[in-house]
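Quick one: structure for this chain?
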Amino acid sequence: MADIKPIGELWEQWANEPIEDYLLFKQWLDLKPKRILSKLSELTGVSVATLSEKRKNYEWDIRADAYDKYLDELKEQEQLAAIKETCLRHAKQAELLQSILLTPARVLAERIRSSDLSEFTKMSTEELLMYVINTSKVLKHLVEVERLAKGLSTENISHSVKEKIEIVIQPAEYLNDTTEGD
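Got it. Here's what it folds into:
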């Protein structure tokens, strides 16, 4: 390769790289995923031999790899941003639905605090129980959605050791014997 250094990123035009050669390189980049000199030759009218020389002199393959990696990183960042936005949206939706579903429970708690039990005294015990059970079933799923959206676990994980461990207790005299020789 000639003594030519990149000015900025590796895939950008190099110092002393003629604009015509750089434009050929840009067309080379556009041929991804199958960059073939004969195809570039067909598109540009430049001979394969001339393109091969430019490819070698200006390190098109290394530059194209760097450009491809850059584009992959951009795509990954966009995907991560979209995932984050989706998770935040799901968490907000779960919080909103929890708030809506908990409104009757809040009203109930407030009524109980104010000792106005007339509404609930009209309900049978079974009706009250079914209301609480149905609300708790929905609430459990909304809490799971919120936890998942925030990247938290929804499972309770525990670990137990079932191996036998032998504990040996030495008499105090044994401990004293080991320190007397010092």
